Every structure is written in structure tokens, then in C-alpha cells.
Amino acid sequence: MAAGVIEAIGVLSGVLGILQFGIDHFPKDDGPKSTVRITVGLDTPGGLNNAGGDLPDVRLFNEAGKFIGINVDPGYVSDGGFGDIEISHKGDTNQQPAYALFSANNDAICVAHATVTFPGNERYTWVGDWGRQCGGTWYYSNIYVDSSNRKVDCLWIDGNNDQPQTGFQVHWPEFVNKDGEQLPSDENAMADKVDYLCNRGPPFKMYKYDDVQDPRGITYWVLDHKRSESGSDNRKIGMSYAPPKYPTSAKFGRDLGRNGTIPSRPNSQANRLVVSNNVQHTATELCESETSYGPDFVDLKYGQFCRMSDKTLWPVCGSAQTVDNCFNIDVQQLIVNGVSARDTPYSNVVDWTSGQ
């Protein structure tokens, strides 16, 4: 590992890889507290300009699963930008916050990556690729990761049921490649590693609105329960809870909808269009994924258009032979049987083409 670089474990279509994060991606260490940085891709509603979303609540736990700090309603993050969230530790302890729980607020954001600086200046990171790989709702983020020259995917989270995921937990040490360690390269070993990180619970877990609307507990590895000599993982898993966001007496003062829930908003993605010529962004992948969510997408590199409302794939108009049943990039309309498929034009077109 190069000096001043943190190597995150990423995944693309089930293949593990290393993403290098420079120190400038991490907030500074400042006393007996931790600072988490959330970097986002898209958000709802709006586009990449003049729009943003709510940063998630953050709860921290030490390696033994003990709650050590919380920050609720930490503020707003601009689209395509980042927000730093400071979490003071109970009793000014310098314990390592090995586990983090992110609980969404009521304006959806798509998390491209999260980084943390512990007391003592240790640094860890997690990338949104894992949201997609592990079955979460995702979209392309258009966020580069330093010298890795790859744009990571992002994971949607929201607190009012606009998105299935209300939050997620991360065990930071399991997503950073330690010095001298090699990622598995064998196909079966790689699949086992991905399955472990997605499905065991403590490394990474997503929480859904139907199960828990405001996550405040994590699963964690119970200490002193190690892997067996045969190599099987027999470690026990525990549950640990942090305080609720609001004291019980305060819940009655919140602006809730019927049955104590916050009403969801109509889908605003239908009036948005993203245009990209990046080889990593394909309309085919978006349309073929059951869990992708976001604006309609034009893939100029391969000449395809994905209509996200019904996940149908269309060619881009571009020759004398392709003028119908295709997407006309000049008028930004899908033409079907000679007629525009939309009654109104897109109100927000986001240009991700190179040089823009």
C-alpha cells in the first residue's frame, strides 16, 4: 500500500478489486470523537445542481458492540458532494468505533462512499458498490475514486419509504485491505468472500422500511468466538442497540402521517434524464437489474437508452436505418411508431459526458 493511501475492497459484478482513497477523502482527527464523511451521487428530487439530501443519522459502536456515540439530523449534503458528521464519544473515550450504523432521514440520498477517521487518526472506508452487489437499490454515482480511475455505484437510502432501505451498518475493518494481504482470485473463493460480506450480518447489513423504519441496532461479532480449526466460521453474532432518535415523549410532537408514519412523496425521477459516454455506465446493466432505480439513462458509448419506468432497452437513433423505435438524442425523446413516447419533455437533463 502506498503511503497516504487507504485501500478499500470494492466489487463489480461479483469480482473483487482494490480502490485507493487518498487522505483528502478523509476528515481530520480532532480529539475524543470520530468523523464520518458521506459522499453522495444522485438524490431526489431535482438534479445535480441546486438539489441535495439529508445526511443520515450515525450511531457508533466499539468492537465489542458497545454503543459509544450518536449524531442525529446532522444536516444537508449537496448533490455530488460530501458532508462531514462529527460524533462525540460517550465519556470522551478514545475507543475505536469499529461499527457504524447509518439511518436515513426523509430526503433520499444515494451513498457513493463513506469514510471515517477514528480518534488516533486511523482511517477506514466503504464503497457503494456493496449496496448494489448485496441486493440494495442502486444507481450510477458518477463519483471517481482517486487513482483507481473507476466511478463507484451508489446505494439509495431514505427514511419515508421512497426507497426500500432505511439504513445500513458497516464493520469498517472488513472493507479495508490490510498491508500484505491478497484478495482471493479464484472464482469460488471470491464468491465465498462476497457472500460472507453481503450475508453474514456484522460486516454489512441493510435495513428495510418494512422491517425497521428507523434502525438503531446492529449485529456484531461476539468477541472470543473465533473460527474453528477446520476453517469454518462459528463466531457468535450478538445484537446491540443505541438510543432512539427522539425520546419517547418527543415522538408525539413530530409531524407524522397516518399510523405514525411519514407519507412518501411521488416519484420525481420520471422527469429526469442522465446522459453518459463512460464505458463503466451501460444502459444494459441498468435495465437488466431488478434493483436499479433512478432517471432514464442514455448510454452514448454503446448507443442505447434505458427507460427506467418499465426497464426496457432501446437503441439510440443514429443512422438512416434507425429513425424510429429509438431514442432521439437531439430532441431527447423516445420515438415509437413515429410518435414521441412522452407527453412532455424532460424537465432536468444531467450531462455526464466527458469534458462536461
Quick description:
The chain has 356 residues and is mainly beta. It folds into two domains: 5-251, no CATH class; 269-351, no CATH class. 7% of the residues lie in helices and 38% in strands.
SSE arrangement:
Elements: E1 5-12, E2 15-22, E3 33-43, E4 52-54, E5 57-61, E6 67-71, E7 76-78, E8 82-88, E9 99-103, E10 109-117, E11 123-127, H1 129-133, E12 138-144, E13 151-157, E14 165-171, H2 187-199, E15 204-208, E16 217-221, E17 237-241, E18 272-276, H3 283-288, E19 296-299, E20 304-307, E21 312-315, E22 326-328, E23 333-336, E24 339-340, E25 348-351
Parallel strand pairs: 18-19, 18-25
Antiparallel strand pairs: 1-2, 3-8, 3-10, 4-7, 5-6, 5-9, 9-14, 10-11, 10-13, 12-13, 14-15, 16-17, 19-20, 20-21, 22-23, 23-24
